[in-house]
Amino acid sequence: MAAEKGAGKAASLWDNMRIRFTVCFIGVFVCYFYYGILQETITRGDYGQGDKKERFSFARTLVFVQCIINALFAKILIQFFESSKPDHTKSWLYGLCSLSYLGAMVSSNSALQYVNYPTQVLGKSCKPIPVMILGVTILKKRYPMAKYLCVLLIVSGVALFLYKPNKSSSVADDHVFGFGEILLLVSLTLDGLTGVAQDHMRARFQTSANHMMLNINMWSTLVLGSAVLWTGEVWEFLSFTERHPSILYDILLFGLTSALGQVGTFIFMTVVYFGPLTCSIVTTTRKFFTILGSVILFGNRMSSMQWVGTILVFVGLGLDAKFGKSPKKTTH
């Protein structure tokens, strides 16, 4: 009897929309925020002491571990919640999608060897730009004027963030557009291609998010596993972990927070209960505070102009979430 009362009380608490939103918000915020902190800790941290200091430079192996954990997590979710739902999506589509998915993640992680974390987060926040360009050129979509204005606002913010006035500086990486920014551009473009492929799978085969994440990550594991074995990177990675075993704990947590974020446990609940607009606002807020956390925790200083550019980007993302989500197909 007491157990029934306890269960009923828990159910009634979950029915409270404020409590439900708080759980969803904290879940998204904590998973993605911690994911970002771990990513910067792993890829930009110094390991060892004195002359033996070294950087982690195994982006492909890191993504390989990430894909394994994502696939396992998606498999568990399918086993518990979608075991009776068949998946009719063609296997070769998953294989093609995994190539752009992999390229985007490896490029994004590799970029952190050349740019600081705020630059990487801001660069990855520009996803609406390649999505819109590819939507117009490949899918023949037409977007409302508000979408173009939001993208213009995002581009202006990024331009302000990257702009550096001509001042004599002794800083070695004082550049406007270098290799790290090129890697972010590649990652963004591949993100756009992945989005187009996933939209096609959802429209044609009604592919669920969990089946998509399982199969794309399984293909990615196969491709990356072959790559790290062929290049010998996996043996260098294992040697690195022997010298610095503490990194294994960070990599495991990185993979788990990635799985919770990418497979979308809390994001899925936010979309279902509160809609895609609320979800976009929550994830955009998370990105801004991730940049703030990086500045505070890792000392990544930003100029006043860069803060203005950052705010413009996130205002553009927020307005895009509210007004820019109604693409219309062209009529022939």
Automatic annotation (TrEMBL):
| UniProt keyword terms in alphabetical order | Endoplasmic reticulum, Membrane, Transmembrane, Transmembrane helix, Transport
Stated membrane topology is: Multi-pass membrane protein
Superkingdom, taxonomy of origin: Eukaryota
Q: Which InterPro entries match?
A: EmrE-like (IPR037185), SCL35B1-4/HUT1 (IPR013657)
Where does this chain mainly localize? Answer: endoplasmic reticulum
GO CC annotations? endoplasmic reticulum membrane; Golgi membrane
Report a single Gene Ontology molecular function: UDP-glucose transmembrane transporter activity
Q: Where in the cell is it found?
A: Endoplasmic reticulum membrane
Question: What are the TM regions of this chain, as residue ranges?
Answer: 21-38, 58-81, 146-163, 175-193, 214-231, 251-274, 305-323
Matching PANTHER family, A to Z?
A: SOLUTE CARRIER FAMILY 35 MEMBER B (PTHR10778), SOLUTE CARRIER FAMILY 35 MEMBER B1 (PTHR10778:SF10)
Q: To which protein family does this belong?
A: Belongs to the nucleotide-sugar transporter family. SLC35B subfamily.
Official protein name in the record:
Solute carrier family 35 member B1
Name of the gene this protein is made from:
slc35b1
